[in-house]
Amino acid sequence: MSLTIQNVVFACPGNTPESYDRGARPVANFYAELLAMEILRADWFVVGNESGVRLAFGDGPIDYQPPGWPDGAQQIHLDIAAPSPLGAQLLQDNGEWRVYADPIGHPFCLVPSDRAYVRRIVIDCPDPQALASFYSSLLDRPERSLDTASRVVLAGTPELAFQRSTSPAPRWPDPAYPQQVHLDLSTTDVPAARAHALTVGAEPLQTGPHHHVFADPAGHPFCI
């Protein structure tokens, strides 16, 4: 049994097929162009290519609130390498890398590069070393390329990074404390994967016919 990251899922406004299309299509098109990806599904927008993690764009809630970076709840964001930000809103210029917002407010970090790809998935949390240990066990990623009290990076493709934050944790499905971005994990053995997630410290939130929702120890929801 193994668990791998299948999708990074971005919350988008919408609660009907029509409102979902209006809310999700522009941001799906944005990331597809930014990362030189293709739209793989248009009923539930998913973009990707032959290698690397896929990006998906969730349906709802209709009262979606964009992230208020750098304020707001603990979040997940992407570190992206790409030739250009494609007109995304600049939030902060840190010299070698810059923080931008996508068309519906999700922040991402960009490093200029001739090749477009997702470098890492970054997760805010109060204790980076503890949360890194959880995901290391959950996803069988033992190697750390960086290990400090304020930031830990697990090796892999893409890398998984954990950075210290004192912001409130997500409280799925409470829209006042939204998750904004979550991970879909895939497996060939769902019962074993669910048992494994519980063993390493995940909290069960919802069981469904096609996916099961858990929270990591810092409150971030993820689906198996």
Helix content: 10-25%
Please compute the radius of gyration using only Cα atoms: 17 Å
Order of the strands making up the biggest sheet = 2-3-4-1-13-16-15-14
Largest sheet: 8 strands, mixed
Instruction: Let me know the average pLDDT.
Output: 93
Order of helices and strands: EHEEEEEEEEHEEEEHEEE
Low confidence ranges: none
Count of strand segments:
16
Helix-and-strand structural type = alpha+beta
Q: Which second-level CATH architecture applies?
A: Roll
Number of helices, where a helix is a run of at least 4 consecutive DSSP H or I residues: 3
CATH H-tier superfamily: 2,3-Dihydroxybiphenyl 1,2-Dioxygenase, domain 1
Number of domains: 1
CATH topology-level fold name? 2,3-Dihydroxybiphenyl 1,2-Dioxygenase, domain 1
Percentage of residues in strands:
35-45%
- Which CATH top level class fits? Alpha Beta
- Write down the overall geometry: globular
At a glance:
This protein is an alpha+beta fold.
Question: Can you tell me about this structure?
Answer:
This protein is of the alpha+beta class. It has a single domain, classed as Roll (2,3-Dihydroxybiphenyl 1,2-Dioxygenase, domain 1). It contains three helices and 16 strands. The mean pLDDT is 93.
Could you give the topology of this structure?
Layout: E1 4-10, H1 17-34, E2 38-41, E3 46-48, E4 54-57, E5 76-82, E6 89-93, E7 98-101, E8 107-112, E9 117-125, H2 128-139, E10 144-147, E11 151-154, E12 159-164, E13 181-186, H3 190-200, E14 203-207, E15 212-215, E16 221-223
Parallel strand pairs: 1-4, 5-8, 9-12, 13-16
Antiparallel strand pairs: 1-13, 2-3, 3-4, 5-9, 6-7, 7-8, 10-11, 11-12, 14-15, 15-16
